[in-house]
Automatic annotation (TrEMBL):
Name this protein carries in UniProt: Dephospho-CoA kinase
Keywords recorded for this protein, A-Z: ATP-binding, Coenzyme A biosynthesis, Cytoplasm, Kinase, Nucleotide-binding, Transferase
Domain of life of the native organism: Bacteria
Family: Belongs to the CoaE family.
Length: 212
């Protein structure tokens, strides 16, 4: 864990590779009353009709908006495929907006004892710099593979392509402050989440909303 500097909630980063059970684990924190910021949901909102990213993306990549004014992800993927400079341009639009969304979340929950930043590519994007501690959701490779390939439309090739963009699970686990193993069933994972929450909130009473 990083040394604490100043007031405000303790920030726990939550991450994990595809098929590890990260979304289910984030819901466990939420059920315990811990505010959770879902970075994927924030991106979906930015891309949706009227979303903050739509106009800038459409200006840079003409023709990627759908009939409702939202970003058509299939068209956008085609526009950046095999073009690193185009991907960099897209990231230059989206990443600052994603960071702003997380900053707004932290401001809204300034009185909480603990908050969670649920970020799939936490380590890959340097997001751990905003966190006091990191929890990695993990499971053995054979369980991960079975879970992912059971998803509708998923193929071996698509799974391999996704893994190629993600830091290896072993490296994530080595860097984490906490590892939540979902291979033993979700009740066991929920017990581990409760233990982590208890450890991180010990002696940290919530403050009234907005009180720093």
């Amino acid at each position: 864990m990083r040394p604490r500097a100043g007031s405000g909630p303790l920030v726990l980063g939550l991450t994990g590779s595809i098929g590890m059970g990260k979304s289910a684990t984030a819901a466990m924190f939420s059920r315990l009353g811990v505010p959770v910021h879902d970075a994927d949901a924030a991106v979906h909102a930015l891309y949706g009709p009227g979303g903050a990213a739509g106009a800038a993306i459409a200006e840079t990549f003409p023709g990627v908006l759908d009939a409702d004014g939202g970003v058509d992800r299939t068209r956008l993927r085609a526009a950046v495929l095999g073009a690193p400079e185009r991907m960099a341009a897209l990231e230059g639009i989206v990443h600052p907006l994603v960071r702003a969304a997380s900053t707004d979340f932290l401001a809204r929950h300034a009185g909480a004892a603990l908050v969670v930043l649920d970020i799939p590519l936490l380590y890959e994007t340097g997001g751990e710099a905003r966190c006091d501690a990191v929890a990695v959701v993990s499971a053995p490779a054979e369980i991960q593979r079975a879970r992912v390939l059971a998803r509708p439309g998923m193929t071996e090739a698509a799974f391999a392509a996704i893994l190629a963009k993600q830091m290896p699970d072993a490296e994530k686990r080595a860097r984490a402050d906490f590892v939540i193993d979902t291979s033993r069933g979700f009740p066991a994972a929920e017990a581990e989440v409760a233990r982590i929450v208890a450890q991180l909130t010990e002696g940290r009473a919530p403050r009234p909303d907005g009180e720093a």
